[in-house]
Amino acid sequence: MARSRKPVNPNAQKALDQLKLEVANELGLKDYQNRYKGALTSADNGRVGGHMVRRMIEAQENKFTGQ
To answer: Which of 12, 16, 34, 45 has the fewest CB atoms within 10 Å around its CB?
Structure first.
């Protein structure tokens, strides 16, 4: 069965988009929201996604350890 790319919670998409913008700004990719993503390198787009995943994992680890 193919995996859906949609978040389980429909409201989660807004939070993911916000996280993506925060990470892009931290990485120096200004005006990321209004930019055509095809003009960015795959390394830049991958860097944003990779940092998002790291943050989400860190948040879950902190949640489980009670920090």
So the answer is: 34
